[in-house]
Design a protein that fits this description.
- By secondary structure, this protein is of the alpha+beta class.
- It has four domains: 13-98, no CATH class; 123-213, PAS domain (Beta-Lactamase), CATH 3.30.450; 218-287, Helix Hairpins (Orthogonal Bundle); 296-448, Heat Shock Protein 90 (2-Layer Sandwich).
- It contains twelve helices and 13 strands.
- The chain has helices spanning 13-18, 21-42, 47-75, 87-122, 141-147, 168-174, 215-251, 257-287, 300-315, 335-351, 398-404, 410-420; strands at residues 126-130, 136-139, 181-183, 193-200, 206-213, 296-298, 320-325, 329-333, 358-366, 369-376, 424-430, 434-440, 446-448.
- The strands form three sheets. It has a five-stranded antiparallel β-sheet. It has a five-stranded mixed β-sheet with strand order 7-9-10-12-11.
- The chain is elongated, with a radius of gyration of 40 Å.
- Residues 1-8 have low confidence and may be disordered.
């Protein structure tokens, strides 16, 4: 039995607003099934058989369309027109739109994956994705050049088969992207690689390994370090001899008065050159290793008090220095290196702030980490200079810095010492309001003094 729904017309638009065409068809079909049963009853059939016949006609259509839809979905077949009439037609059309959207999405994903692989393979650095067990999920072409690792040939193999270093496993497990690891691959001992790890994926359980060839940079740094170390070492002896003779001439009563002022200037500049040489030698020693070789519990509060006494002598009473120290907070590290870093920060605050400035020095535990901070209310530093402050010989105000007697190496020494102690240098400055230099150390290095004491300056 076929039914025809009239096309829209001005007479039935109000009815369509109340009853959608698909629902109207279902109602018409249901009435048709009821009419079939009534005809059977009028032809002499019993009423219960008439109702069963009408219900069977109604259910048969729905069962047929349900089975048809389930088979199409199970086979992954595409839903194509013509679609059935009524509510089932709406269902088929909705699923067809969903299938089309899914196909378009899969095509976009496939294109994106292809473009991603093309872009990743064009990168000269090695990119490797690791699963939770540190096995290789994927690698780009750069990994094959740098590590002799090819995907998909080596998929599922452990990354330790291609990289050998005692610090590799802790770095992967920690996934600290702020730290890098320099190593030599087993397959090519002539190159030097820098390796960084970044977590990604669900719950950050996977790892992205980024490998870069730093052979040229490594050799240039070695040449620079050797040159600086050798030149500084060779300059130390002549400067010592020159300074000795100049001081002798300056103290001799036989030296003419007109020559004393030039000799004093030469002595001053010789001392400055010796200071630069000593700082360069210190930098060279610091650059030779990533971690401090000699570590012990350092009595930081006592060291700070000694530094403050030297700073007061340097200031000659022209600066107000105040302290906020935890006398029982010690730090595991190299005492000599830590003293060098802290003294550079304190002396910089004295040398580069005008007379009358306040310098606040603190040593406290903050958020579970020991922090040494030097704060002043001097002229401050413009934001464009802050990223370059730790460069060797970089000066914000060249004239003022040279007049103050600085070598331009102090902050470079500070950053190297902090790197060797896994610490951070945090710089904050506001022109006209002052600057703050803070050294934040990892909490694992903090030690509380067993016998509390009170330090006096």
């Amino acid at each position: 039995m076929a039914f025809r729904i009239l096309p829209p017309c001005p007479a039935n638009r109000g009815l369509e607003a109340l009853i959608p065409p698909s629902l109207a068809f279902e109602l018409a079909y249901a009435l048709g099934c009821v009419g079939t049963g009534l005809l059977y009853h009028l032809a002499g059939g019993t009423l219960d058989r008439a109702l069963i016949l009408g219900l069977a006609c109604f259910i048969a259509r729905h069962l047929y369309l349900l089975v048809r839809l389930s088979r199409l979905i199970a086979r992954g077949g595409r839903l194509t027109s013509p679609f059935p009439r009524g509510a089932w037609g709406d269902t088929f059309r909705a699923l067809d739109r969903y299938q089309q959207d899914a196909r378009r999405w899969r095509k976009r994903q496939a294109r994106f994956a292809l473009r991603f692989r093309e872009a990743a393979n064009s990168v000269p650095d090695g990119l490797i994705m690791l699963d939770k067990a540190q096995r290789i999920d994927w690698a780009n072409g750069g990994a094959e050049v740098l590590l002799n690792l090819s995907w998909p040939r080596d998929a599922g193999r452990h990354i330790g088969e291609f990289l050998s270093h005692p610090d590799l496993a802790p770095l992967i497990e920690g996934a600290d992207y702020g730290h890098s690891l320099e190593l030599t691959p087993p397959h090519n001992q002539a190159i030097k690689l820098s390796l960084r790890i970044s977590p990604f994926g669900e719950r950050k359980s996977q790892r992205l390994v980024v490998v870069r060839d730093i052979t040229a940079i490594y050799h240039l740094n070695m040449i620079r370090r050797d040159f600086v170390a050798n030149a500084s070492h060779e300059l130390r002896t002549p400067l010592t001899v020159i300074a000795g003779f100049l001081e002798t001439l300056g103290d001799s009563p036989l030296t003419p008065v007109v020559h004393r002022r030039p000799i004093e200037l030469m002595v001053s500049q010789t001392r400055r050159m010796r200071s630069i040489v000593e700082d360069l030698l210190t930098l060279s020693r610091l650059e030779m290793g990533l971690q401090s070789e000699h570590t012990e519990p350092a009595d930081v509060p006592a060291e700070i008090l000694a530094i403050v006494h030297e700073a007061e002598a340097l200031s000659a009473g022209q600066h107000a220095i105040d302290l906020d120290l935890d006398p029982n907070l010690l730090l595991v590290g190299n005492p000599v290196e830590l003293r060098s870093a802290f003294s550079n920060l304190v002396f910089n605050a004295i040398q580069h702030t005008p007379d009358g400035s306040r310098v606040h020095i603190s040593w406290r535990e903050k958020a579970g980490q020991p922090v040494f901070a030097v704060e002043d209310d001097g002229e401050g530093i413009a934001q464009e200079h802050i990223p370059r402050l730790t460069e060797r010989f970089y000066r914000v105000d060249k004239g003022r810095s040279r007049a103050s007697g600085g070598t331009g190496l102090g902050l470079a020494i500070v950053i190297h010492v902090l790197n060797r102690h896994d610490a951070q240098l945090i710089i904050a400055s506001d022109p006209g309001k002052g600057s703050t230099f803070a050294c934040r150390f990892p909490g694992r290095g903090a030690i509380v003094r067993h016998k509390p004491q009170i330090l006096t300056s």
